[in-house]
Design brief:
Number of domains: 1
CATH topology: TIM Barrel
Keywords: Metal-binding, Methyltransferase, Transferase, Zinc
CATH superfamily: Homocysteine-binding-like domain
Organism: Nocardioides guangzhouensis
Strand content: 5-15%
Largest sheet: 8 strands, parallel, barrel
Number of helices: 11
Low-confidence stretches: none
Protein name: Homocysteine S-methyltransferase
Cofactor: Zn(2+)
GO molecular function: metal ion binding; methyltransferase activity
Helix content: 40-55%
CATH architecture: Alpha-Beta Barrel
CATH class: Alpha Beta
Structural class: alpha/beta
Radius of gyration: 17 Å
Length: about 300
């Protein structure tokens, strides 16, 4: 990823589709939408909103595939075997290439990323994960992205350092740059209590990704975990924040969307950005939509 180009990325795809569009997404999985014309049309319209924001901001666009749940365990619950899963992961990248082609002449840069999610629940960490086991688990999805010609991969909402080390190793093995995204609780720490500094430092010591992302938390929560100025901060290249100030348990149990206030979110985001001098990717996560991301970029101008 260029250190000079700034990239718009999308918001909370799944919460936008479920709460704003009334789309049923079993197990929070959006990737099955790629397999029929209506679903592809919904996704196309969704990504076009963010391409328009990037064009208005004079920024690049990072298109993230709708594949956060497209790994073996979650996909099996939806009836996908290994072959069909590989095909839909490849199809996601090719689909985003079609979106990119429509906007290529209006944007400074467009990159396509295969998105990876955690093996387990992004909000509830379990036992510590062995890095080699994580590498073996996530490698097939990363390999599918690489075969399809993705520019990079991004893994979001990780809670475990071992899983992050494994994903980074698997991405290196298949020759794909990767961004590692951690989520934090309201105290600014990973759900298991690890600090962001500890997590970033540990993953970098094991080989490291292209850059790090912090996602699925409100800017106020992330800010509590920033601490004093330190080298690790310059390794954070992406922020994808939540609209709500609720904690993960509250969000998980909520039956209504808390979409917060886009302008207040943007103001909090501007303050947070000062902590991350290498920040180049800005978008949203749960509860956010194009309104929020447009506000984030309006306040960055």
């Amino acid at each position: 990823m260029s250190t000079t180009t700034q990239f718009v990325t999308d918001g909370g795809l799944e919460t936008d589709l479920i709460f704003n569009k009334g789309i049923d997404l079993p197990d929070f999985a959006a990737f099955p939408l790629l397999e029929d014309e209506r679903g592809r049309s919904l996704l196309s319209d969704y990504y076009d909103q963010y391409a328009g924001i990037a064009a208005a901001a004079g920024a690049g666009l990072l298109l993230e595939a709708p594949t956060w749940r497209a790994n073996r365990d979650w996909a099996a619950r939806l009836g996908y075997d290994a072959s069909r899963l590989a095909a839909v992961n490849e199809a996601a990248v090719l689909f985003l290439r079609e979106v990119a082609a429509r906007w290529d002449d209006r944007l400074s840069a467009v990159r396509v990323s295969g998105q990876v999610g955690p093996r387990g629940d992004g909000y509830r960490p379990g036992a510590a994960i062995d890095p080699q086991e994580a590498a073996d688990y996530h490698r097939p999805q990363l390999a599918a992205f690489a075969r399809a010609g993705a520019d990079q991969a991004t893994v979001l909402t990780l809670t475990d350092v071992g899983e992050a080390v494994g994903v980074a190793a698997a991405a290196r093995e298949v020759g794909l740059p990767v961004a590692i995204g951690f989520t934090v609780e309201t105290d600014g720490r990973l759900p298991g209590g690890t600090t962001l500094e500890e997590a970033v430092t540990a993953v970098d010591a094991a080989g490291g990704p292209a850059y790090f992302v912090v996602n699925c938390a409100h800017p106020q929560h992330i800010e509590r975990g920033v601490g004093d100025e330190a080298p690790w901060r310059s390794r954070v290249g992406g922020l994808r924040v939540n609209a709500s100030t609720m904690n993960h348990e509250e969000l998980d149990n909520s039956t209504e969307l808390d979409d917060g206030d886009p302008d207040a979110l943007a103001a909090d985001h501007v303050r947070l950005e000062a902590s991350f001098p290498a920040l180049s990717v800005v978008g949203g996560c749960c509860g956010t939509d194009a309104r929020h991301v447009a506000a984030l970029w309006r306040d960055r101008a």
